[in-house]
Amino acid sequence: MTSLKVEVAALKLSNPTILASGVMDETAASLLNMARAGAGAVVTKSIGSEPRKGYPNPTLVELDWGYINAMGLPNPGIEAFAEEMRLARGCPAPVIGSIFASSAKEFSFLASKMQDYGAAAVELNLSCPHAKGYGMELGVDPEMVSAVVREVKSVCSIPVFAKLTPNTHQLMEVAKAAEAAGCDAIVAVNTVKAMAISVEMRRPILSNKGGGLSGPAIKPIGLRCVYDLHSTLNIPIIGVGGVEDWRDAVEYIMAGASAVQVGSAVGRVGLNVFELICTGMKEFMVREGFESVSQMVGVAHE
Amino acid sequence: MNKQRIVTITSVTKEAPGITTLRFHDEIKVKPGQFYMVWLPRVDEVPMSVSYTSVEKGITVKEVGEATRALGKLKIRDQIGIRGPYGNGYRIPKGTVLVAGGGTGMASLLPAVEAIGDPGRVDVLIGAKTAGEVLLLDRARKASREVHVSTDDGSMGRKGTVVDMVQEHLEMKHYDMVLGCGPERMLSALLKACDEKSVKCQLSLERYMKCGAGLCGSCVIDGIRVCREGPVFSSAELRKMKEFGSSKRDECGCSVKL
Predict the structure, then answer these.
(1) A63 at the B interface (CB within 8 A)?
(2) Which residues contact A160 (CB under 8 A, 6 or more apart)?
(3) Together in a domain, B216 and B124
(4) What is the ipTM of this complex?
């Protein structure tokens, strides 16, 4: 019997497609709708200590092969998010709470809140490329990442995932530091630093000027990161970056990912993208004689 | 895929104090009820209903904040960025149609009235605060059988709300479909009025928007994207929405009362 079920760091998922943070995940109703659309798990918007408006518009540029965004981490704050998490109880897929903070202490405060709210796991945003004092500003420093993970692990019994940035030559060192500190899985990658300029207006389009590139344009980058991480780490890897169809997802899995996250494709393909990936993946597995997703993990290394 | 493009303003029409129509050339097809994300460098980028859907496109802007005030000051030959069109638009109905617009809601509705293409089966009801804010009256008259106006202060047409007129019309005549756009309190009353008479409607909603492209989720109502599955929703969809007519999300995603 061919099955799409996977287990990632003690999280049981009905299939290996996970809604990526930042996409359709700011309200309970959005998260529930994405789970109903077929996501095997859903990750919340990155939540901080206080309500935050994010950057003024434009916050998105559409390109042929992806998007550049600089949303600026808009979120209702951890206190107000309690209500969304309460309403999301009974979600047919595990809800993973994404958090961002500027220090290890603040991360552990937010993580314990997410655990109290019933999150199935917590994802540390150590990789947002466009918010001053947050995200990759911490996430490119192995010592800082180690401190954050250790602090969070000391207050959390739920699995802890670290979402890392490809905007560094030290990804392997950062990932090893996270693993050594007790991290349960690595999520790779977040968006790639990018920009778009309007030649008529003679200026960057995004109000923040710089942003992060996502979508098919970054798939080869994410894939290489996951492949290298699989050679380096013993903990599971969740692959992200330009997954739009079953073939992309299987590529990531063969590179070493135990599951994949899907973000930009929710806009580019539609809400049915999870279902389409799963159907295609299952057909491929039947054709190729794979009975479980785990049999495919990392086979590109053999 | 909706790439940003820069367009040049070819005409500026003052519709009323603080309400301006800007026209510009853009080849990309737009369905009535769809919207653009309109960019003014150094100011903002905001969603705007397309009020003229021919090749000479148009938006009709009411000055309510920084971005709309800046748009209201633009002159011929000024440039703006647009991306889109986004959203689903109205499904152009068969049979007889009653159109109800509150304030600048008419900007989104008039292209639908014109797309019906048969003035003999459309009646238009326009509601505004005061006579000076009654929008696009001549255009509505050309494309419909009857036009009626109501104002809050009674300075033009009858004193009252557009929903009062809708109730009377549904009482007097048979309509197969109601199209509506305006403030959400009005739309919520409009849905109730249509449901009482078992007439189907399509209403266009407004929400705070960031990406406009179906990604970020800031415009959701009951988890449904106003920028993608909307902005036009059917009565069947609206009836299921707990947030319709009662709450919306602010820039942080916090729930706030309407």
Answers:
(1) yes
(2) A111, A121, A122, A124, A149, A152, A153, A182, A183, A184
(3) yes
(4) 0.95
